[in-house]
């Protein structure tokens, strides 16, 4: 399986419609080069541009969905279209779309772990509740978004649901780039799964983006890594590598679930 991660730059001076059209062109350019194409988190508005979330929101079947569906169909690829600000029933969500090669919606995922603590996404967006996997030919993919990468229990749940690879779009800040690489490798090693983590380039809302999209194999080896600028990262994946790794080093079979909390000591 061939995968392409499109590390698009989010420039606040570029109109959203222009960036949407540019992203669609980049997806179409992967026709014949990739089976799976991935875009980053909130590339329409910028992951840290929280003042634009409401104005830049759209329904699930809005312009981003339509543009990406057409691009997936034209390119003949599975497309993880990154995420956008979804507006539904008075609430905002950080929502990812996965589109099939015929442009149909295969899955959507609302980000569960919202970043910002007491500001930004954490207070402006509602949390998703459902784990999402998608069955691609020869590979089951689990979906997470950016800050989710810091919560290993989410990825354990995806493994239990059959995931053999994780796709993680992000808008990760440059100042925490070391965590980005470390966490991507950790999620791969502990779950014996591929990790395809696609970030943004550029600077938006005054926050320099890390870039450095990365693909890690089930042993934790980095197969490919982008630089800091706009770039398309291409890599070949071997779906059989997951089963082989799990058979050769069957650590997942030794998981101990439901361990009781320690009892309080008596004084």
UniProtKB/TrEMBL annotation:
Keywords: Hydrolase. Residues 1-239 form the CN hydrolase domain. GO terms for molecular function: hydrolase activity. Pfam families: CN_hydrolase. InterPro entries: C-N_Hydrolase, C-N_Hydrolase_sf, UPF0012_CS. Belongs to the carbon-nitrogen hydrolase superfamily. NIT1/NIT2 family. This is Carbon-nitrogen family hydrolase. The lineage of its organism: Bacteria, Bacillati, Actinomycetota, Actinomycetes, Kitasatosporales.
